[in-house]
Amino acid sequence: MNLIYGTPSEFSTSLKFEASWDYCISYCYQMSTCLAAYYQEEFPEICEIFEIGNLAKIQKLNAYSGKFMAVKTTSPSECSVSSNDSLMSGTVSTESTWQNYSIQVSPDFWIIDSSPFFKCPENFKLWQRTKGLWCMGVVPTGEITRLDAQKMCAENFQGVLSGFDSDFEHTSAIKAAVPLVPKSTPYKYYGYYMDGERKTNCRYLNQTGPDCNGNKGFLFSDRFVTTYDHYLWGFDNQPNGMSDNLGTSNCVAMRVNSKDGAGLDDLP
């Protein structure tokens, strides 16, 4: 938090309540979406909280004003080198939201420019991939075809079936899916469709070769995945969809049971 003498100059909405200056700063520090806190040496003591996107300009004042502002910069856990830096920045994020901002410092004002607010659907988690921000969630549906799963992703979430860009993403998906598995079930595994569909030239036993081995035998549409090294297939010789020579087990799915994940599989 950077502490300065100042007052809000351009803003839309704020939250006001009675509180000491120390409590006001602490409240903003712990609030994930808080950008700045404002306080005046008056009675009763009033704390004013500004969330990111709601404050555009702060007017700098002298020490005799009795007006204070605390502004998050760099990150909630680091201090900026100096409140006199000509350009500072920060990020406000949660497990499912993200927004950053920059602060241009002039002799009289702090001018704040906020990025668009990025929010994932309910029960989805936000991942900061190398290629950009990505929302991913596990959606329980009952029995469903891959085509219907793709349609549901597009219609309900304006999205696509997701892949895994890291082991952390895979582990997170397993943690979300395991509680959805019934404790008593006749099935060894439950599968959740994800990104990956077998190439048409890799579906039968006579279509073998290096171009059809492992991940190479599939087409992918999650354009934010940088590597497929995190597609961890099941130890029971997966993917083995070609072995029955029916040409139907072409869809990548994440398998789970009531206790843990069981690797990826290629299913109809």
Automatic annotation (TrEMBL):
SMART domains: CW. It comes from the Eukaryota. It holds the Pfam family PAN_3. InterPro entries: CTDL_fold, PAN-3_domain. Residues 1-107 form the PAN-3 domain. SUPFAM superfamilies: C-type lectin-like. This is PAN-3 domain-containing protein. It comes from Caenorhabditis nigoni. The gene is Cnig_chr_I.g3311.
